[in-house]
Amino acid sequence: MKVPKVVDLEALQQISDALKKADLHKLQSDILTSFLFQKSIDSQVLQGMREPITRWPFFRLLGGAMFCLLASSTCHSFRATLNAYRISAQSDYGIAALIATSFYPPVYYSFMCDPFFCNLYLGSITSLGITTILFSLLPMFQRPEFRKIRASLFFGMGMSGVAPILHKLILFWQQPEALTQPWFQSGALYEILMGVLYGVGALVYAARVPAVDAWEIRHCWQQPPTFHVLVVAGAVTHYQAGLVYLGGQKWMLKEQILDKPMAKEHYSTLLWSYF
C-alpha cells in the first residue's frame, strides 16, 4: 500500500511570505525591459545565438578540393594517349572549383551577421568560378595563345579576395578593439598569404616556370605540379582562416549585442546562455 505524500505546510507558508516581501513592480519592469531588449536585436543575430553555427561552408570547401584532385588525377591518367588527353585536359581546370569554394568559410563567417554582403561576395566568387570552368571547356581556349587569358582568370579569382578583406577592415575601423583581437589578426594574415599563393601560382602557370635543365627538377617540379601545389596551399590557408573566423563569431555577436540600448545590463543572461 502506497503512503500518500504529506504536504509541507510550513514550506508553503514561507513561499507566501517571500511573495509578500518581493518587489513585484521591479520584477515586472525587469521582465518588460528584457522583452524590449530582445526585440531591439536584429533577428539574424538572435538566430545565430539560438542555433549552432553552421558548418556547410567547410563541406563546400572540402567538396571543391576533392573535385579538383579527382579531375586533375583523371586528366593526368590519360596523358599518355593524345586524343584522350585532349578531352581530359579540359577537366584539369577543376582547380577553379577549389579556388571558388575555398572562399566560402572565411567570407561566410566574416559576414554571417550581414546576409546581403555575405551573399554578394559568395555569389561573385561562384560566378567567377563557373565562368572560368565554362571557358576551360571551349576547345579554342586550350590553344597556347590563350594561356595568359587562362592565367588572368585564375589570378582574378585569387585577387577577388581583396574586396572582403578591405570591407572587413572598414567595418571594424570604428572598433579598434577588433583589430587587436588575435583571431582577427591571424585570419587577416591567412587571407593575405592565400592571395600571395594564388597570385604566384597564376604567374607560374603563365610563365611556365621553372624552366631548368636538371632532369629531376624538370620531371618532379615542372610547371603543372608547382601550380597545383601553390593553389592547394592557398586553399589550405583559406581553410585555416575559416576556422579562425569561426572562433571569432562569439566576439562578433557580443559586439552586436552591446551596441543596443540596455545591452550591458542584460547581456550576460541573454547571450551566454546560448553558448
TrEMBL record:
Belongs to the ADIPOR family. This is Heptahelical transmembrane protein 4. Keywords: Membrane, Metal-binding, Transmembrane, Transmembrane helix, Zinc. It comes from Hibiscus syriacus (Rose of Sharon). One of its GO terms (cellular component) is membrane. GO terms for biological process: response to hormone; response to sucrose. Zn(2+) binds at H76, H219, H228. It is a multi-pass membrane protein. Pfam families: HlyIII.
